[in-house]
Amino acid sequence: MAEDSQRNFRSVYYEKVGFRGVEEKKSLEILLKDDRLDIEKLCTFSQRFPLPSMYRILVWKVLLGIIPPHHESHTLVMKYRTEQYRDVYHALQVIRFIKDSTPQVEVFLCMHQLESGRLPRNLAFPLEPEDEVFLAIAKAMEEVVEDNIDCYWLVSSFVNQLNNKYKDSLPQLPKVLEQYLNVEDNRLLAHLKACSAVSKLPYDLWFKKCFAGCLPESSLQRVWDKVISGSCKILVFVALEILLTFKMKIMALTNAEKIIQFLENIPQNNTDAIVSKAIDLWHKHCGMPVHLV
Amino acid sequence: MAQQANIGELFSMLDSSVLLVQEDITAVFKDNLNSDRGPMLVNMLVDYYLENNSQQALQILSTLQEPHDKHLLDKINEYMGKAATRLHTLSLLGHVIRRQPSWKHKLSQAPLLLSLLKCLKTDTDVVVLTTGVLVLITMLPMIPQSGKMYLHDFFGIFGRLSSWCLKNPGHVAEIYLVHLHASVYALFHRLYGMYPCNFVSFLRSHYSMKENLETFEEVVKPMMEHVRIHPELVTGSKDHELDPRRWKRLETHDVVIECAKISLDPKEASYEDSYYSVSQPVSICLQRRQIDPNASPYIETHISYGKTTLQKITVPTNVPFLESYGNSSLLKLVTIWSPSAVCGMTTPPTSPGIVSSESSQTSSQPYSKYFSTPAGGKGTPLGTPATSPPPPCISDDFVHVSLPSAAATPPKKEDKLDPGRPLLSRQQNVINSEKALVPGSKSSVNLSDLPEFLGCLASDEDSVEKDREEDAISKEISEITTADAEPVVPRGGFDSPFYRTSESLAASQKKPLSVASSVQGHSLSSEPLASSLDKSGPEGARDTPKQAFTPIDRPCGASDESPAGNRVGQSSMETSILTPSPCKVPARRRMGFGSGQPPSYEHLFEVALPKTAYLFVSKKTEELLKKVKGNQDEDCTSSTSPMEVLDRLIQQGADAHTKELNKLPLPSKSADWTHFGGSPPSDEIHTLRNQLLLLHNQLLYERFKRQQHALRNRRLLRKVIKATALEEHNAAMKDQLKLQEKDIQSLKLSLQKEQARYHQFQEEHDNIVAQLHSQIRQLQHDREEFYNQSQELQTKLKDCRNMIANLRLELKKANNKVCHTELLLSQVSQKLSNSESVQQQMEFLNRQLLVLGEVNELYLEQLQHKHADTTKEVEMMQAAFRKELEKAKFCVQQQSQRLDAFQKRIVELESQLSKKDHLLLEQKKYLEDVKIQARGQLQAVESRYKAQKRITQAFELEILDLYGRWEKDSLSKKLDDEKTEAAEAAEERMDCSSEGFADSVAGYSEEAVGRNGETKPPSTRGSSNSKGGSSSELSTPEKSQNQRMGQFSSRWEASMLLEPSTSVPLTVGSLPSSTSFLGMKVRELFRNKSESQCDEESMTINSLSDTLKSELCKDPSMVEAKAPSSPINPSPSPMNQDCSVGQLHIMDYNETHHDHS
């Protein structure tokens, strides 16, 4: 109740009238003030609203379990994390897997491999698809996060989450996409089917890499907010929206390869709108995300 | 065009000889004029008139109505400019103007006036001048006000013409000059009459010049002898007489009369009111008064006048030839005046005298009445009397009647009249009637009758009227072929009935006329005498009838009469040579007859209007007296009026003509006048014509004047009638007054009677009143006595009443007492009954008492018999029980207190318990929180640990890799075994340590136990060795090849281990090679060991707490004190201590919590 009293009483009306995000920052701050952060609330919040960029990293870290919910232990835990990062980094340096000139992304990869015990014997080992996913995400994350340590931890946690939490749901997503596309625009779906491009759509790029490399970082952040907060369905709607947005072009293209090629390199100028629409669409189809997983 | 042609035809028919056609045509023209407003018809009419001298056209033109006047005037003006038509035009203008059209006021603005004036100023034709002057004179009174701007023109004209008269620049015939002179004379009169001041000043300025002096002497001065001083000359001024207000009230005839008043010329003058003194009539009036002495003055006098007139008429010496005339005329008068209702006098006054005469002469009654009624008030205008025809049958009666009546009345002075007077008075009547007849006869009389008619007419004309009449007749004669132009004379009386009467009259007169003319011709022609010889002649002739009224003058007049008549006859015969014109005959005749009778109607005035007639008569007589006397004087003087000259001229002409006429046969006389005389020279004819014209003009002018006079007369008569009516009214009022006075007197008488009666009554009344008063007094006295008696009685009554009231009070008191006593009695009786009952009860109680006393005694006896000893025991028992009860109570109290205390305690404890529960929950939460926190940290640590493990693995892999490479190298070289052994041992140790980490803590605990007290390095070494060997074998299968060198490595390891074991207690926390790999390892080991130690210690503490749980543990710090004591021996690392302390503390808290619960 104390929280509510502190909130602006007009916030309800803001939402009713259609203003979004007026009170989000404040409510988020209120949420973050709690000792022993309420992870569920944070999840709900980040699903409902776009996160303010100044708190995004913190929220992500909390949601991904990099730092515990208690504020007291944050410094300590981060110290551990940092030491761990340094140790790993040092070890990698010692065993000469990385040098100073090694790009950060690869460093992250090596560290991740090391920590997961999959460090190849030799650097010459070819990259596995997992590693490529990791690299793409890391690249995107690197743009978002400045601190290397944070970045590493976020990347590795994000990837771990993808691998652990969404292990079952991710393979379902293409089917879900098809289903929603049928609801939204069955002509497009028919067209895609006619082109036999449904199965060849860039699912890896969309669902495994979570659009890393597909969307610019500013848009990507908002998608990842939802993913990190526990909803991988948003990925479906982003993909759906991309298809709907570029429907005309897709309809114009008859060749599956061309479609896929186009989709893999969609124009970057309109992505914010796409994401916004996708979120709306997501809200429309799945309701307000209080109950969402 | 068609219309014009039509009009042309009409013009041709205009002068038709048939009267009916003429009338029709005239009506048509008038209709046209009414409908058409254009000037054409008027112009054509004027043209026609100028060409044909048509009488009808003149008639139409002279009656033109308003819109055409301008055209007419313009046309006339146009013709006026031409010398040829000037004369005709002027005569036309004269005709028109004499009609006095409604638009006459426009004349002053018309250019015609200017051109007329110009003509008069410049023309040299005497005829034109004379005509023009006459027109101007006629016109002047019509435009008195607006004509003033031409005043100097008028004066100029007068100057010019007067000088013309004298000098005769045109050298025209003398005869013309006479006419001109007459007209100038008229102009003089007119101007002097209208604008005296201006005119006089003009005369003064004009004749002050020398060249005009002669004219003045010759012409103007004689004229001035015939005028009196104009009052305006005294009272007015030049401007005043031009003042429009002066003229505003005056009509045309007023102006004419005004002018005539000034004149002294008997031919011009009119005599009215203020110009004559009233002294003369008064005497006559007095005379009359004496004659009629009977009381009521007005009515009686009227009657007396009536009588006198009757007497006059009924003179026995009636000339037979006059009878018919007199009959007719008188009868006319009778019939005229007969409708008494018309005059408004309904009551004919009846005088006793007349009544008596009537009684004697029954037949005379109506006529006397007839005569007497008009005498009262002749309301009908003078013009009307001529309307009714005379019934001839009455004439004889009348004459007869009048005779006895005259005889009956006592003779007066006037009765001594000579026969001439009644005759004349008769003639007056005749003239009066004839005058009325004349205009009518003009229109209706046939040409055949004309001569006789003329003869008849001639006898009746006044001198003034004579001229006009003559003019009219001459005109008729001259225009014999044309019809009479003046049928419609604007006189009220001449309507259709009159035609008949006049015709009948004419018929009836035929016979008498011849007689009359013959007789009159010599017997009564006094006028010719006057006109032929001298002025005195006509004067005298004319005066005679007037004189006839006055007895004084009578003989003279009578003497004059006959000789004058004879002379006239002769003189006229002589002068006839000069004027052969036939038209002179009637004129002369008329003169002859008429001149002698001008005032012949005056006696009628006397009859009709006694007063005015009286005045008039007296005036006339006065004047005549003067004249007669003055005539002789004036005879020699040259101041003959131009009128008289003209008259004389005409007279002469007439005489000459009659002479000539007598030579001719009668028929031709009437048929053709113009050719009469056969061959006169053309010059003469011209002159004569002109003369005729001039005469005509003059006649017309005179006729105009006469009309004006007639108008005036009518008005005056109206006034007179009004006045008489008022007088009558006055008389009536006076009568009434008298009657009322009589009434008043009688009323006064009756008043006196009434007053006397009243007095009587008053006295009686007083007596009665006195009686009544005395009665009243007596009665009052009685009343007072009665009053006193009644008062006494009343006082008695009051006393009685008081007594009664007292008695009543006493009665009331007594009653009260009775009531009180009754009440008391009842109370007492009640008390008595009560006391009785009480006594009864007392008795009963006493009896009971007795019974009870007996019973008591009985019981006492019984009680004394019985005695018992149980009281002590009972008392003891009771005390014991009481004590017991007290004890029990105390006990109960104690118990209850305890219970309360316990209950309180329970509540307290329960609250404590809840608090504890709460605390416990909080603690649990907190614990969970802390657990979560720790878990988080632990997770981090774990991950770190895993990372370290991975690192280590990586390192190991690396090392192994390196070893592998190095062994390959050493195998190839085999240089140093020890080094390899040491390396192997180290590797084994590494394996061992890693295994110890990985497998369990058991090994460490063993080591720790061993370290507690005893130091058994071999055993530990052995175990460690064995274990290390096993672990190495397990972990690194690829290193199975190195198992052979396990012994060497164990040795090296022992040596290495020995050193730390010895220095353990001292240098646990300060390992020198912390950064080095081995140092790290060692430290790790120690850390793990301390952890395990902590576990053990916690176990022991748990057991301790269990033992303490049963007892009240009031000192948790004891456990803490124990805790630090335990690690003293082994001296573990500070980290371990901290950790254990925290755990202990937590446990302790838990325990206390448990205790409380």
UniProtKB/TrEMBL annotation, chain A:
Signal peptide: none annotated. It holds the Pfam family RabGAP-TBC. GO terms for biological process: cellular response to starvation; negative regulation of cilium assembly; negative regulation of TORC1 signaling; positive regulation of protein ubiquitination; response to growth factor. Its main location: cytoplasm. PANTHER family: TBC1 DOMAIN FAMILY MEMBER 7. GO terms for cellular component: ciliary basal body; cytoplasmic vesicle; lysosomal membrane; TSC1-TSC2 complex. This is TBC1 domain family member 7. The keyword Membrane applies. Non-catalytic component of the TSC-TBC complex, a multiprotein complex that acts as a negative regulator of the canonical mTORC1 complex, an evolutionarily conserved central nutrient sensor that stimulates anabolic reactions and macromolecule biosynthesis to promote cellular biomass generation and growth. The TSC-TBC complex acts as a GTPase-activating protein (GAP) for the small GTPase RHEB, a direct activator of the protein kinase activity of mTORC1. Coiled coil: none annotated. Keywords: Cytoplasm, Cytoplasmic vesicle, GTPase activation, Lysosome, Membrane. It comes from the Eukaryota. It is found in: Cytoplasm, Cytosol; Cytoplasmic vesicle; Lysosome membrane. One of its GO terms (molecular function) is small GTPase binding. Residues 50-231 form the Rab-GAP TBC domain. PROSITE patterns: TBC_RABGAP.
TrEMBL record, chain B:
Residues 350-389, 461-495, 516-584, 1007-1047, 1118-1140 are annotated as: Disordered. It holds the Pfam family Hamartin. The keyword Coiled coil applies. Residues 356-368, 1019-1035 have a biased composition (Low complexity). The keyword Coiled coil applies. Residues 516-529, 568-579, 1037-1047 have a biased composition (Polar residues). InterPro entries: Hamartin. GO terms for biological process: negative regulation of cell population proliferation; negative regulation of TOR signaling; regulation of cell cycle. Residues 465-478, 536-545 have a biased composition (Basic and acidic residues). Residues 723-817, 860-912 form a coiled coil. GO terms for cellular component: TSC1-TSC2 complex. It comes from the Eukaryota. Keywords: Coiled coil. This is TSC complex subunit 1. The lineage of its organism: Eukaryota, Metazoa, Chordata, Craniata, Vertebrata. The gene is TSC1.
